[in-house]
């Protein structure tokens, strides 16, 4: 693919607090929606993965073709990586013994290890080819492909890791979410301390981003399990349909809020003759 300069930077939202709120909502919705396809609707892991990967390819083509940041399109791709990642993880790790359709049955620990290696491989190749792992300065189509490839793998990894913590580690759904939430809080603390100390290390901030991005997926996965599973399994018992509906409403509401806020900020900047602020 040719390495051509484009306006891809404007197609990626700013890394604000609301970005992470939407990311967690989208990935949790991906967990519940993926389970809705593969288990509630009885489609099975393999066919659900094929269907959802086709959906991911469709919205990704639209995102790559876009010339500017389109909030609903961007978050549709995030959601597609999450739903497809959920069923891919389940297909890799589970078997027909779960009663949910055939799978490879390699187990959560092995599946997580394979996906960690794959993610590290994507990031290494991205760094070697693009000379950067920046997630705020993505100026080429090729870098954008690396960006979305890393996101797809990280969201698949998140499902495997979340299932491992919830099912195999003995922590349960709420315990797994609490553990990952604590690690995420530590990442936030490191970020705030580095900013306060004015640490000028792009590598540090890129590393913190990918650590947070990977971990918010299993956090969303375990939170999705908390919402959908019955009380006897440590969940709230909302089911996949109810949980997916609630999360979809939350995600759409926050997207609409950020769009309205950005429109106001753009109008205010234009009237004051200032540069247009970055979309969030």
Q: Which structural class do the helices and strands define?
A: mainly alpha
Number of domains: 1
Poorly predicted sequence stretches spanning 5 or more consecutive residues: 1-9
Tell me the strand percentage band. Answer: under 5%
Mean pLDDT: 80
Question: How large is the count of helical segments?
Answer: 8
Q: Total number of β-strand segments?
A: 0
Percent helix among the residues? over 70%
- SSE series: HHHHHHHH
Q: Can you tell me the overall shape? A: globular
Distance between the termini: 28 Å
Q: What radius of gyration results from the CA coordinates?
A: 19 Å
Tell me the major beta sheet.
Answer: none
Protein model, in words:
The chain is built from eight helices and no strands. It is mostly helical. The radius of gyration is 19 Å and the shape is globular.
SSE layout and pairings?
Layout: H1 17-40, H2 45-65, H3 71-93, H4 108-130, H5 141-168, H6 172-196, H7 202-228, H8 239-272
Quick rundown:
The protein is mainly alpha-helical and 280 residues long. It has helices spanning 17-40, 45-65, 71-93, 108-130, 141-168, 172-196, 202-228, 239-272. The longest helix has 34 residues, at 239-272.
Essential attributes:
280 residues, mainly alpha, 0% strand, disordered N terminus
């Amino acid at each position: 693919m040719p390495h051509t300069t484009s306006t891809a930077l404007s197609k990626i939202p700013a890394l604000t607090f609301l970005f992470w709120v939407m990311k967690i909502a989208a990935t949790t919705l991906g967990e519940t929606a993926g389970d809705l396809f593969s288990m509630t609707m009885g489609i099975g892991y393999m066919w659900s993965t094929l269907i959802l990967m086709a959906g991911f390819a469709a919205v990704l083509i639209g995102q790559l073709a876009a010339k500017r940041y389109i909030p609903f399109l961007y978050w549709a791709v995030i959601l597609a990586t999450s739903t497809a990642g959920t069923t891919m993880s389940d297909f890799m790790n589970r078997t027909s013994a779960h009663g949910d359709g055939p799978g490879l049955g390699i187990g959560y620990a092995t599946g997580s290890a394979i996906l960690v290696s794959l993610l590290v491989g994507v990031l290494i190749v991205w760094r070697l080819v693009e000379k950067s792992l920046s997630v705020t300065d993505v100026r080429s189509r090729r870098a954008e492909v690396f960006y979305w490839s890393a996101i797809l793998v990280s969201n698949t990894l998140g499902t495997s890791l979340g299932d491992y913590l919830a099912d195999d580690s003995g922590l349960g759904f709420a315990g797994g979410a609490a553990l990952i939430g604590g690690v995420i809080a530590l990442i936030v603390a490191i970020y705030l301390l580095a900013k306060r100390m004015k640490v000028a290390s792009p590598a540090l901030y890129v590393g913190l981003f990918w650590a947070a991005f990977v971990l918010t997926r299993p956090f969303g996965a375990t939170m999705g399990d908390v919402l959908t599973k019955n009380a006897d399994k440590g969940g709230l018992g909302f089911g996949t349909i109810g949980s997916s509906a609630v999360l979809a409403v939350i995600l759409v509401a926050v997207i609409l809020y950020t769009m309205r806020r950005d429109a106001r900020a753009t109008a205010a900047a234009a009237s004051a003759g200032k540069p247009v602020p970055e979309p969030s």
